[in-house]
Description:
Residues 6-180 form the Flavodoxin-like fold domain. With 229 residues, the protein is of the alpha/beta class.
Amino acid sequence: MTTPEHVLVVFCHPLEDSFGAALLEQYTAGLRESGRTYEVADLYRENFNPVFPAGDYIQFDGGEMPQHIRQEQARVERADAIAIISPLWWLGFPAMLKGWFDRVWSCGWAYEFANDPDGSLLPLRPYRILFTTGGSAGSFARNGYAEALDSLIRVGVLGWCGVSESSLVLLHDTGIDTSTTDAHLDFVRAVGAGPIVDRAPTPDPRRITILNSPVRARNIPDAPTMAAL
């Protein structure tokens, strides 16, 4: 896979001095080391409105989305790859990030309005999601959380987003253990400097879970894979 030149980094955290902000700093430092350019969509600092209003339903009648949504879509269109840095709250996206997907990935732009559409309308690009979580790798494994997130987010959400391949990284024990937290910063910087999606095993599975198995095809019954997601 050729190295993407321009990365859209979507950052979601309400606190400017959060550990997530430190991860963003390290990840973008890694991107600079790799020679890539990047753009940061800082959803809280930019006051993105995640609430889906009645006016957004115009998309289902073929109408044009508001200008600020089209500007977000233009960011996606400019990107050769997309990275997302966010906490994992209640085993899912924070409301701000969920609303970004709700509003930006609109019908007619990201997907067709159909009972069983073929998939995304967008060109293929790699995605990486970096989630911080206080939960341990062991607790996620015991309860099947990692597999559920893989199906719901990588297959279910990103499957509509023009994905060539993707990786979902769970940074465990965030805020619980200082040495682990420090190690996450080093890891994320190395991730930024490396391939957008790396299928190599995590260096320490007790601290980090990486989900990046091939995604199932959406439009072919029982097909084992879809173009290298």
